[in-house]
Amino acid sequence: MPGRIIEISTNGRSLHLDRGFLSVREGDAVVGRVPVDDVDAVIASVQGVTWSNKALAALSERGATVVIIGADFNPSAAFIPLRGHHDQGRRMRAQADASAPMRKRLWAEIVRAKLAAQAAALETIGQPAERVKRLRAEVRSGDPTNREAAAAQAYWPLLMGADFRRDRAGDAANAMLNYGYAVLRSAAARAIVAAGLHPSLSLHHVSDGDALRLADDLMEPFRPAVDLLARDLSLEGAVMGDASTRKRLASVLEADYRTANGRSPLSQALVRLSQSLAAIFLGD
Fold first, then answer.
1. Whole-number pLDDT of residue 40
2. Which among 123, 170, 177, 180 could disulfide-bond with 249, CB atoms 3.0 to 4.6 Å apart, if both were Cys?
3. How confident is residue 71, by pLDDT bands cut at 50, 70 and 90?
4. Using CA of residue 84, residue 87, residue 92, residue 95, what is the dihedral sign?
5. Contact criterion met (CB below 8 Å) for 225 and 266
6. What SS3 string covers the chain?
7. Which has the minimum average pLDDT: 23-37, 70-84, 174-188?
8. Of 74-83, 91-100, 203-212, which one has max mean pLDDT?
């Protein structure tokens, strides 16, 4: 089962470690506590938060991530553990030495999986998915013709409406997407570190200011799960200012996926994906 996503959305709160529990306080009053072993990530969506070093160390020891969210609900910083796996050094060396053809082949597989998920999302809401499926079939190693971008042009109007434009700085549905992707990104980073890989050594993403480029790669096939949630919330008239909206977006990690090993929540699918990638780097 997926662990807990803890969101701090009220200024003036502080996090402490208290006898095996992550304790959230407001002044001297405890407003919430959860076993620290159950925490997958802590998301701070306000700036007036304080942390004890013991709490951060305990989260790190358990592989949990801490994500700082900006005003546009995009992540502005992430705190990830340095120690993730007993074989970390060998795995990171193999990851760094991966050839360009291997990385291109793997990126093509990820793009195909993403487009398959987008087509499935469209079919779920009764929209035509033929163009996205056709573009998926055209993806080649490294996706040199950017079939991913072409699919996005077809996908977003069908999913969100003809007037919708994906804008990271936008509000309403765009802010929901930003937040949901931040949750997804934190789970991907956690899975990557747990597999003994480095989240900055990507297959495809190359942004110089991005410390989680591999997380951006591996989360791609799972974005449509966030997209469907954001669509449903938008149609219901939900707003990002409501804690219930953010709670539902965070629940995306519980989305049910079919795998070769049976049905698993999205968070566990990310773990298996990261472990599989590590095995590929090692030649296993």
1. 83
2. 180
3. confident
4. negative
5. yes
6. CCCEEEEECCCCEEEEEECCEEEEEECCEEEEEEEHHHEEEEEECCCCEEECHHHHHHHHHCCCEEEEECCCCCEEEEECCCCCCCCHHHHHHHHHCCCHHHHHHHHHHHHHHHHHHHHHHHHHCCCCCHHHHHHHHCCCCCCCCCHHHHHHHHHHHHHHCCCCCCCCCCCCHHHHHHHHHHHHHHHHHHHHHHCCCCCCCCCCCCCCCCCCHHHHHHCHHHHHHHHHHHHHHHHCCCCCCCHHHHHHHHHHHHCEEEECCEEEEHHHHHHHHHHHHHHHHCCC
7. 70-84
8. 91-100
User: Exposed e or buried b for every residue in 48-69, given b needs 16+ CB within 10 A?
Assistant: ebebeeebbebbbebbbbbbbb
Say what the pLDDT of residue 224 is: 98
What's the whole-model pTM score?
A: 0.86
β-pairing verdict for 13-18 and 21-26: antiparallel
CA 164 to chain centre: 22
For residue range 191-228, list pLDDT tens digits in order.
Answer: 998 899 998 999 999 876 677 899 999 999 999 999 99
Across the strands, what pairs with 65?
41
Letter string b/e over residues 74-106, b meaning 16 or more CB atoms within 10 A of that residue's CB: bbeebbbbeebbeebeebbebbeeeeeeebbeb
Buried b / exposed e over 154-164, threshold 16 CB at 10 Å, is bbbebbbeeeb
